[in-house]
Amino acid sequence: MLANLRSWFAFHVSAAFISLRSLGQKPIATIMTVMVIAITLVLPALFWVATDNLTQLTKNWQHGGNISLYLKTKLTKTEQEKILLEVRKVRGVSVATFKSPDEGLLELKQQEGMEDVLKYLPENPLPAVIDVVPTTEVNSKEKLQKLYVELKSYPQVEQAKLDIQWVSRLQAILQFITTLTHSFIILLALVVLLIIGNSLRAAVHSRKEEIQVLKLIGAKDSYIVRPFLYAGIWYGLIGAILAVLLLNTFLLSLTIVVNQLAASYQMHYELLGLSFRQITWLLFLAIILGWLGARVSVKRQLAIIEP
Q1: pLDDT digit string (tens) for 112-170?
Q2: CA–CA gap between residue 245 and residue 249 (Å, rounded)
Q3: % of the chain at pLDDT higher than 90
Q4: pLDDT of residue 63
Q5: CB–CB of 62/133 below 8 Å?
Q6: CB burial class (10 A; 0-12, 13-18, 19+) of residue 1?
């Protein structure tokens, strides 16, 4: 039993190295095939990463979706401090910061073109504002809306503002990209099958005479097919590794742009790349597609070749 297992293992190791050496003997054709496979795998992987980044962004949307409470202008400083303390005690409030009318006016003056306009105003028209950042427990639009209504109901609050429309749009985009990603994965998986199958069909055809001799001396189809199956696996594996390198390079080039965009919205967002789980799944999927494409194509070709 152990001897048979060792023999089986030796046959597979030998077939794997023979197929790899065969690919190395045709470097240009191999590189072109691997590059096409890599580019094909990059597309669904890119949508996959984009979906994860949007999902992560929607999980942390409350950090950029603050509630602004505009206080009545007739409140005294003591009344303003009192309402600030009351707001901080409300369940669901993580941070509540007070901005006086003078601080608001100073920020407005720093904007381009506003200083000349504001100097003609007889007095500061801005109210005091309390900016509220929800806790992580407020992780849905319904919970945020409930918190918004509760804070808005305070008699000291003249007006409240909640910008949640972008969250709904972001969730709609996320759902669309998720559906698109699944469609791309299925479609491009078929493309990888065709690429590998076509490449190995040409390899089988070029070794037609060798296969005929092997059949004449009694070689089984499983023995003949085995190197081609490993060639398909090598195509898929190398293509997937190259796809991971290309995608990570592309994402690295986007990091600076994303950081600048997040900073313009006073947010900090770290762009997610391919996780270890995603890389593992991509390599596994590419290996399976390589094996399946090789098996379907080579089996059909062998049935045609007769000694």
Answers
A1: 555 555 555 556 567 888 888 888 777 667 777 888 888 888 888 888 888 666 666 76
A2: 6
A3: 6
A4: 47
A5: yes
A6: exposed
Which domains are delineated in the chain? 13-60+168-304 (no CATH), 66-162 (3.30.70.3040)
Asked whether the beta carbons of 22 and 230 are under 8 A apart, the reply is: no
Least Cα distance to 48 among 290, 221, 281 occurs for 281
Calculated CA dihedral for residues 257, 258, 260, 264, nearest 10 degrees: 140
What's the rounded Cα separation, in Å, for the pair 274 and 278? 6
DSSP string, the chain: -HHHHHHHHHHHHHHHHHHHHHHHTSHHHHHHHHHHHHHHHHHHHHHHHHHHHHHHHHHTGGGT--EEEEE-TT--HHHHHHHHHHHHHSTTEEEEEEE-HHHHHHHHHTSTTHHHHHTT-SS--PPPEEEEEE-TT--SHHHHHHHHHHHHTSTTEEEEEE--HHHHHHHHHHHHHHHHHHHHHHHHHHHHHHHHHHHHHHHHHHTHHHHHHHHHTT--HHHHHHHHHHHHHHHHHHHHHHHHHHHHHHHHHHHHHHHHHHHHTT---PPP---HHHHHHHHHHHHHHHHHHHHHHHHHHHHH---
Mean pLDDT on 250-268:
69
pLDDT of residue 108: 57
Q: Is the dihedral of CA 289, 290, 295, 300 positive or negative?
A: positive
What angle do the packed helices 27-59 and 165-206 form, to 10 degrees?
160
Report the predicted TM-score, pTM, of the whole model to 2 decimal places. Answer: 0.63
Which amino acid, residue 93? V
pLDDT, position 64: 47
* 3: amino acid identity, one letter: A
Q: Closest by alpha carbon to 248, among 46, 38, 53?
A: 46
